[in-house]
């Protein structure tokens, strides 16, 4: 006789494990299924984000930035050092230890909340039955009142550059280089490509980023994207826009990439090539033919605004459904679904999900960009404040970038906060909190911000919206 649960979650990434914990906290008998095996051959929880995504990449970004600072920036502080060297295997081992600590932490949280963990591949059958294909080859069928599909995503492959995880790698392989490649190619100038390119550029690699789109960071505010392209270019990232990869050939320990751009056929040789052209939902063998759950034309599970699928009692969250592929979006969807299963009227505000690129300086935004608002015919007032005028940024020797606040010209309601600069992600979160409560630019301007802080730049940008900035000259109204 099969075990019965109120909720069965397939996938233990940021969406799945959070949904499972929340469901259990709400008094529901909950199971969570995970098949991913970590480096040590054991089930590792936390999904892509924790194992081979956001967390390990941040560990490498921080390590590489410390090296960059020691190499380039200590002198200005009066700090002198001998020759600064990077031990890449030690840096990678530190990253692995952080991942191990956190995946172990997720397992402990599931246990502490009474969630039953099944190790293996989960598959939704008809009638809300879930089959678990265990690692030992056996199978078990669970009966569920409710099922949450949280199977995540994986890197997109492209035929012109097949990944071998040696010379040509995806985002996972790029986290495990054991030395710094002299010449590094990156296909894709999105979040992942820029972050991973930054890591190895700081450590001395010559980095070329090949991007098929003609526009740099089209999802970001144009003013921010333009500044980012300029800063990253100065940092040594050679960003080639409008460049379409047509083929690649590995010879010995190097790869030659062919691509076409405005100048015609091009060719470049690298020691390593990272393919970072996006991610796609993992739905392989997830749904039995008679499960009743539908996919859309792009392979995502079709859901409504509350993450419900076409089958009552079956939900899907995170990278496997529409919307941004962001860990925090997945987690909050998990909470919403658990709450709704428990009978509460929870919902998620998809208009205020922050986006962050963890280059240095960080790039982050919440709400709408100026170009989107203009295309929608919304009249706006814009205030900006440069970190070059921030005392705290000067003290930290970190003055690149600016804060931009966009408000409705008629109501003064803040519609977007965009930051490139130090602690951009944290400053944008302040904007998100205000926007969730319907803040006006005037409201932000009336608040007291401590001095000297980076957050004063948000204060000043909000004041600048209506021509009231104190520490920078205000734009004259036309």
Mean model confidence by pLDDT: 97
Output the strand order for the largest sheet: 1-2-3-4-5
What is the share of helical residues?
25-40%
Task: Point out poorly predicted stretches.
Answer: none
Strand content: 25-35%
Number of folding domains? 3
> If classified by CATH, what would the architecture of the largest domain be?
3-Layer(bba) Sandwich
So what's the CATH class of the largest domain? Alpha Beta
Query: Which topology of the largest domain does CATH recognise?
Result: FAD/NAD(P)-binding domain
What shape does the CA trace take? globular
Keywords: Cytoplasm, Disulfide bond, FAD, Flavoprotein, NAD, Nucleotide-binding, Oxidoreductase, Redox-active center
Enzyme class: oxidoreductase
EC number: 1.8.1.4
Domain Pyridine nucleotide-disulphide oxidoreductase dimerisation: 353-462
What does the model show?
The structure is a single chain. This protein is of the alpha/beta class and 478 residues long. The protein has 3 domains: 4-155 and 280-350, FAD/NAD(P)-binding domain (3-Layer(bba) Sandwich); 168-277, FAD/NAD(P)-binding domain, CATH 3.50.50; 361-465, FAD/NAD-linked reductase, C-terminal dimerisation domain (Enolase-like, domain 1, 2-Layer Sandwich), CATH 3.30.390.30. It contains 12 helices and 21 strands. The strands form 5 sheets. The protein has a 5-stranded mixed barrel. Helix 3 runs antiparallel to helix 4 (88-112) and helix 3 runs parallel beside helix 5. The longest helix is centred in the N-terminal third of the chain and has 25 residues, at 88-112. The radius of gyration is 24 Å and the shape is globular. The mean pLDDT is 97.
């Amino acid at each position: 006789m099969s075990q019965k649960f109120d909720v069965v979650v397939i996938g233990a990434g940021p969406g799945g494990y959070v949904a499972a914990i929340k469901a259990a906290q709400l008094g529901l008998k909950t199971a969570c299924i995970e098949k991913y095996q970590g480096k040590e051959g054991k089930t590792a929880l936390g999904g892509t984000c924790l194992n081979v995504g956001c967390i390990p990449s941040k560990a490498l970004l921080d390590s590489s930035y410390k090296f960059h600072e020691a190499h380039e920036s200590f002198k200005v502080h009066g700090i002198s050092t001998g020759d600064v060297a990077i031990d890449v295997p030690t840096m990678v081992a530190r990253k692995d230890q952080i991942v191990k600590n956190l995946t172990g932490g997720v397992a402990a949280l599931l246990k502490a909340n009474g969630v039953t963990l099944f190790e293996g591949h989960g598959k939704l059958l008809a009638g809300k039955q879930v089959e678990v294909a265990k690692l030992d080859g056996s199978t078990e069928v669970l009966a569920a009142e409710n099922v949450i599909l949280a199977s995540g995503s994986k890197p997109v492959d492209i035929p012109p550059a097949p990944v071998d995880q040696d010379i040509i790698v995806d985002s996972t392989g790029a986290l495990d280089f054991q030395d710094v490649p002299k010449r590094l190619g990156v296909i894709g100038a999105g979040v992942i490509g820029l972050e991973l390119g930054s890591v190895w550029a700081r450590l001395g690699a010559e980095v070329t980023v090949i991007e098929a789109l003609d526009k740099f960071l089209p999802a970001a505010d144009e003013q921010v994207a333009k500044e980012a392209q300029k800063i990253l270019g100065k940092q040594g990232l050679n960003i080639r826009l409008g460049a379409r990869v047509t083929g690649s050939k590995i010879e010995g320990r190097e790869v030659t990439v062919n691509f076409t751009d405005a100048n015609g056929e091009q060719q470049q040789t690298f020691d390593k090539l990272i393919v970072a052209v996006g991610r796609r939902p993992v739905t392989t063998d997830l749904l039995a033919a008679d499960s009743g759950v539908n996919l859309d034309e792009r392979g995502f599970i079709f859901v409504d605004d509350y993450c419900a699928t076409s089958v009552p009692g079956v939900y899907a969250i995170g990278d496997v459904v529409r919307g941004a592929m962001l860990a925090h979006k997945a987690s909050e969807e998990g909470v919403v679904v658990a709450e709704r299963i428990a009978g509460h009227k929870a919902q998620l505000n998809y208009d205020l999900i922050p986006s962050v690129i963890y280059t240095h300086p960080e790039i982050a935004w919440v709400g709408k960009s100026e170009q989107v608002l203009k295309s929608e015919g919304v009249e706006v007032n814009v205030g900006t404040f440069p970190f070059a005028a921030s005392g705290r940024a000067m003290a930290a020797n970190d003055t690149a970038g600016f804060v931009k606040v966009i408000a409705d010209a008629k109501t003064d309601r803040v519609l977007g906060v965009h930051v490139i600069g130090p602690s951009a992600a944290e400053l944008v979160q302040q904007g998100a909190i205000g926007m969730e409560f319907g803040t006006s630019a005037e409201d932000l301007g009336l608040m007291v911000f401590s001095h000297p802080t980076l957050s004063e730049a948000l204060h000043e940008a909000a004041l600048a919206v209506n021509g009231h900035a104190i520490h920078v000259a205000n734009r004259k109204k036309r």
